[in-house]
Design goal:
The complex is a heterodimer.
Chain A (H helix, E strand, L loop, with lengths): L3 E12 L2 E12 L3 E5 L6 H9 L8 E6 L2 E3 L4 H6 L2 E4 L11 H5 L13 H15 L14 H14 L4 E5 L7 H16 L3 E5 L3 H7 L2 E6 L2 E7 L7 H9 L17 E11 L7 E11 L3 E5 L6 H8 L6 E9 L2 E3 L4 H6 L2 E4 L3 H5 L6 H6 L7 E2 L2 E2 L1 H14 L16 H14 L4 E5 L7 H16 L3 E5 L3 H7 L2 E6 L2 E7 L5 H14 L2
Parallel strand pairs in A: 3-8, 3-9, 6-7, 7-8, 13-20, 13-21, 16-19, 19-20
Antiparallel strand pairs in A: 1-2, 1-4, 4-5, 9-10, 11-12, 11-14, 14-15, 17-18, 21-22
Chain B lengths: L5 H7 L1 H16 L7 H26 L8 H18 L4 H24 L5 H20 L4 E2 L4 H7 L18 H27 L7 H24 L5 H19 L1 H11 L1 H5 L5 H27 L1 E2 L7 H11 L11 H21 L3 H23 L9
Antiparallel strand pairs in B: 1-2
The chains are: A alpha/beta, B mainly alpha.
Chain lengths: ~500, ~400
């Protein structure tokens, strides 16, 4: 058995209200490619953040043994000085700097008072050769494609004398050809003795490069599969990823499904910055009155982009397609239009896009429908207060008063305020984007009850979620989305996690 | 019902407490000179433009800590136009006033367009405006001073100078009875509104502040209004500019706290993305903030030339800094979304008291600037550090 380079023992990390990691163990041998797989939110990224010192020593419990020593990393610098380098999913390159400048950012060549540009550029050139990128080091980052940028990130890691390379979804934004090249590069590094940890959703790639696979689910290590000894086919990995029991985590509901409420035809959306990139590709969907419709898919599948582009074109460029509400075509050119046509979009990013954290509950509750509590533009503050109290009681929001600032509430209660805000806007169709992200199990159950109640009132609910059990437990019908396209439609009764996963994978392997 | 504690009370009214302490300090150091009726009256007349501009600046700052650097130049430019119209061209006073308001508002709308719809950073747009309108003021005035002494009714209408007071209709001699009556009326209205509000809240079963705290607040504020008007009555009565200032404070105080438009300003500053996704036209909010700033700069321009009884190309310099300083001292957040009109007025009064107090003590002009700078820095440090939970150094 080869030498163990890294061992993470009994790592436990809690965030307020949520246990993100629960006694996780990870063992990485020197010179291997170790894959970390699991659903979104399983805790993979949290684990890597613990390893790299983003969550400093003391904020978690457990031990990190690296190269035979117990390590206590307080910052990223600490872990990098030991040769642990992490490459995040979102590339951290500065567009208007050259490749060489980016590669040595924070790690400049020369002295403190004078950067040695000759050394910077020649060293950058060498490293670019190592990763097989044929671009002069003086090229600006903005002028090269994403695939090449990914290679620059790897070269940057090499510049830090990486011994353990961690790649978080390195191929998520790459096309087939670039992905293949990247994987080959990893295999070449392996021959040269480099150790890598790769986090990926693309299981075909995992099966291809990995020597060992660790499966994480719900913040716990489930199993470690060895290429030599175990079956590491895709279906075997999926079983490990999703194999949990579905118990009574979802309240029951008798569906009363009516006519089609909202229909979308041939919807296309392009990326606002990279205008040649299509993020929603010819999507046609519909949702009926009283129905809870699920949209399943991995992160980056284009679900949020679809929802936001429908909601008054609040995302994307060059949008085309038709929206029909109750059979009639409508034009939704602004959020105002969308709200007027009784659409509501409850964002996945409640702190960033949903709530005004520095304002009290009552002000957040009425924000999307301020006219309902005012006459001639003058707000009736008493009425506003009553509304806020009414929704607080209806949704069982836990707070001393509705004068409380939203920023001081727990995630679950913030989510309830956000729901209250959009329920008060009195929509017919509610699009809930990751409605239970980052909230604890008890609050999740309460949110599910609210969703059921909305459906019972005859609203149409579109639920976007990366948590498959939740989609399966709640929805009457499910669309599966991947790379901007709808790749499957399943009824609630026939759907299983394996079926959804296989739809995604089938679409993924067909490629570009 | 004692849900609001003393510590909360202190936190909420920090600046008022600071104001009282500083006033007391100056009263002691100047042997009470700062409280003489003449000086109280001067405090209003001298700082009228700050009150007006700071109110407008608050709306800009609320949208996300955005400032307007151009207002000093706009004040000067509008004043110059008014003086030229009334003196050189003998235009009717009311027409001139209308033109001045229109010009100021158009300037605001022009800058607001670039800021709101084209999204040029406000700092750049208003820096450009600051340079351009200073230059244009010189052009309009030919680099000269125009005296508007003969436009008596204009000076009386906007001024705070020698004879610009509301006449005493009752002929009270040394004590201006009109002023006293106005003070009493204001107090009665204030108390009545406070009582009505409290009774409705109690009737509907809402949470009320504790009786003691509420009584304290009402009695104190009534006393301040009465004492203030009594002082004014002892001098020459109500300076006419006080009417304008009062109208601005009341109207904008109402807009910011009670209307949907006011709510939109706070929402944009609190979280612009969330506001946009709530169906609020955020571009329009920025546009209104800067257009309104131009409108109020026009009013401040009138007040300025009326007090100086002339228009000069150098007027209005650093007015923007006085307005910005008052906002931040008065508790507006440098990141937007937080701040009130009464708070800003307290900030402006505090700046005014420091100015006046130091002048009476004979402190050198240059040292006054040093002190004002330090007060501003201290106020913002206090605001940001207390929001961070008392930690002085930010997390890296």
């Amino acid at each position: 058995m080869a030498k163990i380079l890294l061992e993470m023992k009994n790592i436990t990390k809690t965030f307020p209200g949520v246990k993100a990691l629960d006694n996780v163990n990870l063992k990485v041998e020197e010179g291997e490619i170790h894959a970390l797989v699991g659903e979104n939110g399983a805790g993979k990224s949290t684990l890597m953040n613990v390893l790299s010192g983003i969550y400093p020593y003391g904020t978690y419990t457990g031990d990190i043994v690296y190269d035979g020593e117990v390590c206590r990393f307080n910052t990223i610098k600490d872990s990098e000085s030991r040769g642990i380098v992490i490459i995040h999913q979102e590339l951290a390159l500065i567009p208007y700097m050259t490749i060489a400048e980016n590669m040595f950012l924070g790690n400049e060549r020369g002295s403190k008072y004078k950067i040695d540009w000759n050394e910077t550029n020649s060293r950058a050139g060498e490293l670019l050769k190592t990763v097989g990128l044929k671009e002069p080091p003086q090229t600006l980052i903005k002028d090269i494609g994403v695939g090449k940028q990914q290679l620059v990130e790897i070269a940057k890691a090499l510049a830090k004398n990486a011994k353990l390379l961690i790649l978080d979804e390195p191929t998520a934004s790459l096309n087939e050809e670039d992905s293949r090249a990247l994987l080959e590069l990893l295999l070449r590094f392996k021959k040269e003795g480099m150790t890598s940890i790769i986090i990926s959703h693309k299981l075909n790639e995992v099966s291809y490069v990995a020597d060992t696979i660790t499966v994480i689910r719900d913040g716990a290590t489930i199993e470690t599969l060895d290429k030599e000894k175990d079956d590491i086919s895709e279906s075997r990995i999926i079983k490990g990823m999703v194999g949990r029991e579905l118990s009574d985590r979802f309240p029951r509901r008798e569906p009363h499904i009516g006519d089609v409420m909202l229909e979308v035809r041939d919807w296309n959306v392009y990326h606002p910055l990279y205008s040649e990139r299509k993020v929603v590709d010819n999507v046609s969907i519909n949702v009926r009155k009283g129905e809870v419709l699920g949209i399943s898919g991995l992160m980056g599948a284009g679900r949020t982009e679809l929802a936001m582009s429908l909601f008054g074109r609040s995302y994307g460029e060059k949008i085309s397609g038709k929206i029909l509400i109750k059979g009639e075509e409508v034009q939704l050119h602004s959020v105002q239009d969308a709200i007027r046509h009784k659409l509501a979009y409850v964002t996945e990013d409640r702190k960033g896009n949903g709530l005004i954290l520095s304002n009290p509950i009552k002000i957040n509750t009425t924000l999307a429908n301020l006219d309902a509590v005012s006459s001639h533009s003058v707000i009736d503050k008493d009425r506003e207060y009553e509304v806020a109290v009414e929704y607080k009681e209806k949704l069982k929001t836990k707070c001393p008063t509705v004068e409380q600032n939203v920023g001081n509430l727990s995630g679950g209660n913030q989510q309830k305020v956000l729901l209250a805000k959009w329920m008060f806007a009195d929509p017919d169709v509610l699009i809930l984007d990751e409605p239970t992200r980052g909230i604890d199990v008890g609050a999740k159950y309460e949110i599910y009850c609210i969703i059921n109640q909305l459906a019972a009132e005859g609203k149409s609910v579109i639920m976007i979620s990366s948590e498959m059990p939740e989609i399966l437990g709640m929805c009457d019908r499910i669309y599966v989305m991947n790379e901007g396209r709808i790749v499957g439609e399943l009824s609630g009764s026939e759907a299983t996690q394996e079926l959804i996963m296989s739809h995604i994978l089938k679409a993924g392997s067909k490629g570009e | 019902m004692n849900s609001i504690k003393i510590s909360d009370f202190v936190k909420k009214y920090t600046m008022i407490i600071v104001l009282i302490v500083i006033t007391a300090l100056f009263a002691w150091r100047t042997d009470g000179a700062i409280l003489l009726p003449m000086n109280v009256s001067n405090l209003i007349s001298q700082n009228a433009y700050v009150f007006i501009l700071a109110t407008g600046m608050l709306l800009c700052i609320l949208t996300g800590g955005n400032i307007d650097l151009s207002i000093g130049s706009v004040v000067c430019f509008v004043g110059a136009i008014g003086a030229v119209l009334m003196v050189n061209m003998h235009v009717n006073m009311w027409v001139a006033i209308l033109v001045m308001f229109v010009v100021g508002t158009l300037i605001g709308a022009f800058q607001g367009f670039w800021i709101a719809y084209v999204r040029i950073p406000p700092f750049i747009v208003t820096l450009a405006g600051m340079l351009a309108f200073r230059g244009l003021s010189n052009v309009v005035l030919n680099g000269m001073t125009i005296s508007i002494k003969e436009c008596e009714s204009f000076v009386n209408l906007f001024g705070g100078g020698a004879n610009c007071y509301i006449p005493d209709f009752f002929g009270g001699g040394t004590l201006n009875i009109t002023c006293i009556l106005a003070g009493v009326a204001a107090t009665v209205i204030f108390v009545a509104l406070q009582c009505k509000n409290r009774v409705t809240r109690a009737k509907k079963g809402y949470e009320n502040t504790g009786m003691a705290v509420w009584l304290c607040k009402v009695v104190l504020l009534s006393a301040v209004i009465l004492a203030f008007t009594y002082k004014l009555a002892q001098h020459k009565g109500i300076p006419s500019v006080l009417i304008w200032v009062a109208v601005v404070i009341l109207v904008y105080g109402y807009i910011t706290s009670n209307t949907t438009l006011g709510r939109h300003f706070y929402a944009v500053g609190g979280n612009e993305k969330a506001t946009r996704l709530s169906g609020i036209n955020t571009n329009r909010v920025y546009f209104i903030a800067y257009t309104n700033m131009g409108f109020l700069a026009a009013l401040a321009g009138m007040v300025t030339i009326a007090r100086m009884t002339s228009a000069q190309p150098t007027y209005g310099q650093n007015y923007e800094m006085d307005a910005i300083g008052s906002c931040f001292i008065g508790g507006a957040s440098a990141y937007g979304g937080i701040g009130t009109v009464p708070g800003v007025i307290v900030g402006a009064v505090l700046m005014g008291v420091i100015n006046l107090g130091m002048s009476l003590m004979g402190v050198d002009q240059n040292w006054q600037k040093v002190v004002k700078g330090l007060v501003l820095l201290a106020a913002v440090i206090f605001d940001i550090v207390s929001k961070r939970g008392g930690k002085l150094i930010a997390k890296n």
